[in-house]
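Sorry, can you check?
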Amino acid sequence: MASLKRKSIMEDSYETPQPMQNSNGNGTMIVNDDEPVACLHDVSFPPGYVPSSSSTGAAAAEADAKPAKEFPFTLDPFQSEAIKCLDNGESVMVSAHTSAGKTVVALYAIAMSLRNKQRVIYTSPIKALSNQKYREFKEEFSDVGLMTGDVTIDPNASCLVMTTEIWRSMQYKGSEITREVAWVIFDEVHYMRDRERGVVWEESIVMAPKNSRFVFLSATVPNAKEFADWVAKVHQQPCHIVYTDYRPTPLQHYIFPAGGSGLYLVVDEKGKFREDSFHKALNALVPAGEGEKKRENGKRHKGLVAGKLGEESDIFKMVKMIIQRQYDPVIIFSFSKRECEFLAMQVSNILPLLKRGIETFSIGLNMPAKTVVFTNVRKFDGDKFRWISSGEYIQMSGRAGRRGIDERGICILMVDDKMEPSTAKMMLKGSADSLNSAFHLSYNMLLNQIRCEEGSPENLLRNSFYQFQADHAIPDLEKQAKVLEEERDSMVIEEEDSLKNYYNLLQQYKSLKKDVRDIVFSPKYCLPFLQPGRFVCIECTRGDDNSPSFSTEDHQVTWGVVIEFEKVKGVYEDDANKKPEDSNYTVNILTRCVVSKDGAGKKTLKIVPLKESGEPLVIIKLSSARLPMPKDLLPLQTRENMLKSTSEFLARNASGLPLDPEANMGIRSSSYQKLVRRIEALESLFDKHEISKSPLIEQKLKVLHMKQELTAKIKSIKRQMRSSTELAFKDELKARKRVLRRLGYATSDDVVELKGKVACEISSAEELTLTELIFNGVLKDVKVEEMVSLLSCFVWQEKLQDASKPREELELLFTQLQDTARRVAKVQLECKVQIDVEGFVNSFRPDIMEAVYAWAKGSKFYEIMEITPVFEGSLIRAIRRLEEVLQQLILAAKSIGETELEAKFEEAVSKIKRDIVFAASLYL
């Protein structure tokens, strides 16, 4: 796509839109001269596509007809452009910010379908959003139905609203409806990158009826063009992209420094980043207190200062200020249920002033506000704690500013001293996240593909966005490899073979020295000698630690004095039970570390981690000598005296009087002695090596090192190219098919057996283990309440530290579940599926078995909350997911004619589907 720039009218107001990648069409800039609104319009064609004259004529006649729907306001350029594509009968992806007005395009597609007496499907990521859209569309069009798994209303309506999972299921079952669909609208299609559920979108798009057309609605994604290229290729039809970074209501971004009392504007409504204001905000941070001050001032909770008794917390000050300035309504984002509760308690005495109250939710429904506040921008993503990405921040901050109501939206980022300035800046100045495939294989998918008349797992993989992205990368990879090969081949080194031999010896030597250091200076041997005042020698390594160089330019050694050491606290509380030698420590060392080439000194307090790889500072010697340590090291004079004493000691004892690892530190391990002998043998080889006396040896080694690095990079790129050109997941597909045959779910001729038919229906829980329990008779032999309690282990994913054990009969059932899961995992391992057996077994957790048992027995909600430490919202979500699994099990039992089991699952649903747990959402 040609480089596009906006007219000068826009340069002062909005940032130029990011160019979309991989364009093969003619990009067009559409600008409204009256307002600073613009969009990019491009189109992707499948390879060799030639539009037929008949379809072009029909589309032209359609375009000349009266619009299918007229709106009581002037359409923005991106809306007009997208609607033109629909009138021409061609698919379109609309990529725009939250609240920009993407729903207008969906409304037009529905109106057009109904006018043309065609069927249209509208899919959304979650049931609550589907319910909301159903109500909206029903008011306007009347001929609208709803299918969410929970509820089915008018399934023969011309416009059907459903979750993407239901649409996938209908396609697999070959529903008549799928053959009649002219248009499919995928709302929130950027969900395709979700690591758990994203694959559902890929399946649904690949399997969509060949004659249908598509409307994709997405948050801004820089690679929208790549997505459209994929759709065009898979469905052999043009797919347009209409992209805009226009915000109907501009945003202002503020920082609220923890412990501070005011806001700092860091990004103005024109998108300009204010560097000075940003640094002022960070300088106003009140860091977490230390020692007595910390104990006196109360506690700090995740970056929110609780303060002295009677003081207002940060969140209280924030909400109070928002209400006083009439910046409400406000959405406060927090990524921890515990923190949400904590914050709610902190503002409880001003709750009457809030319009709605506090509730947690995980997706932005149609709930705009004037202001959004981020209390903390770290979240647990199912794998680890991380800062939210700039794309996530952009999407959530887009909730601020109501079109036609607010002149501007206000975003407030609360920042504490744990957040690096670069992280905050990246979040505020960063760009939207790319739409990358999260495709993965599941047994449910494979079985449905095998069973489906036109299904083929291989075909699905070949047509996946994952494979498309992998193949798309090949030309770039080839180019990279060629450039690196030319660079490598231009490096000519004298006596290269001999130098390589010497280089390899050096690498071995470095590796052995590191292994020795890891033993000698591990906490096991170090801790007894880390008293305050102990002299230690540390090495400051510059640049790449893998460099072959041993020159003083790259490795600088300095002596210092231990001040103190402390254990690094782990993520989990049970770290407290570790042995001292198994923990990690940081050591505070007072040192004069040389940091510049000219040898200029710098007095500073260094923190040297022990037992952590890849650190630039490492302890290489412990001295037998100690200095008397003053109580207070804060005064500059005291530190000067310590440094002076250190210098005097080293002047008298140049070696530093190091402790001998064996004689003084008591290291007797055979592995240490082997390493020492190997190092001595290598040192003798260095002296005899023919090239060791060669002039310029250091420079030659550096050039060879660079050449070796380039060779490794080239190999890596070529490996990547090979995996791209082969069918993605090919080996995993074979392995998973072996598992299905071994466990009796499908035959070698790809015929789905009885077990497979059951697993086909289970998409909301681990399908193999659950199917095995059914066929082992476990679910048939127990009471309904016990069965429901056991099934809770399939839907509960949170980890509780202090969950109580379930009663004996339930624990016995849980043991059967674990045994079954272990057997299933071992079969997968034998069939070459990569799986952590114990990790898989431990993914089933008994934490809410008692609570769910009591609920199924008829207990009140407040009663079950008294017997479990979980959050109300977490338990409600789990029970609702449990009902979803039971609905799938009802269909599974029906598919194999198990009427008794079907009735049991239906009874289970009737026992748990009641009261507040299944009340309609409060914000809909």
The CA atoms of residues 100 and 247 lie 6 Å apart. The first strand starts at residue 28 and ends at 32. Residues 697-725 form the longest helix (29 residues). The radius of gyration is 33 Å.
